UniProtKB/TrEMBL annotation:
This protein's record includes keyword Hydrolase: yes
Fumarylacetoacetase-like C-terminal domain location: 75-282
Statement: the UniProt record of this protein carries the keyword Hydrolase: yes
Protein name: Fumarylacetoacetate (FAA) hydrolase
Keywords of the record: Hydrolase, Metal-binding
Family assignment from sequence similarity: Belongs to the FAH family.
Coiled-coil ranges (or none): none
Organism name: Dinoroseobacter shibae (strain DSM 16493 / NCIMB 14021 / DFL 12)
Biological-process GO terms, alphabetical: small molecule metabolic process
Source organism, top-level taxon: Bacteria
Pfam families the UniProt entry points to: FAA_hydrolase
One example GO MF annotation: hydrolase activity
Amino acid sequence: MRFLVGHVQGQPGVFAIVEEAATNLTALMPEIGTDLMALTRDPELVTKAAGLVGQGPQTQVADITPALPIAHPGTIICLGLNYVEHIREGGYEIPGYPALFMRGRNSIMPSGAPMVRPACSETLDYEAELMLIVGEGGRHIPEDAALEHVFGYTTFNDGSVREYQRKTHQWTPGKNFDATGAVGPIVVTPDELPEGAKGLKIESRVGNEILQSSNTENMIWGAAKTLSIISEYTTLEPGDLIALGTPPGVGHAKKPGPRWLRPGEVIEVEIEGIGTCANPVVDETAMAARKAAE
């Protein structure tokens, strides 16, 4: 199935998407709620929802304002340095264990919402990434069973303020500015994609300018291995978000460069078979001034 969480005329809901038509699952089955959390916890609810697709009045996808697929994720874990060429462009050695860091809830926002370049730095970079949403949770998940714990896959733009990422050996500041990590809008269940979402074209662009272009086949640690590694040290829960790293072509490594995101641009991340996450870039100071004037 293909899901989209969002609002139509101010009313929140979970929608099942078939091409450009959307079925409001929340209206037909209120126990689903207004994000994907209930569905991640109950596979039987997903089966029931599948039987409702096409029923009731249909909404056009274009009329839905996206919201976060999981409104309040318990854990957001991101994997860095997962494509060999990206590792090399950053001047790192190829690691034997993935670079893992966490994001806070305030740092993420849905597709379509402004990506905010902070007032303190102009070094806002883009990172196209595949993201998975955990279904069944667990600890010490074996790699050969890990994909059974994936509810679905979506797109992610791991917007990074490089100046602050490099202030310490820990990446937390540069990866956690408010409204820099864009998620969604479409979530696709594993049965509609290749195993582990491998072999999918992944790209970022601004207008006709292609910034990154690669394939999820090039990940060092795929979805199964990543889930298994993370669950060695923490218990994964339904609705947790895990981002699987970015391919080469990021702005800080461009030559000539760097190529930072600029206010007024729209940054798009597209993954084959899933969809496109698009966000306008805004300046924090200018945004605050506009709000004050309203």
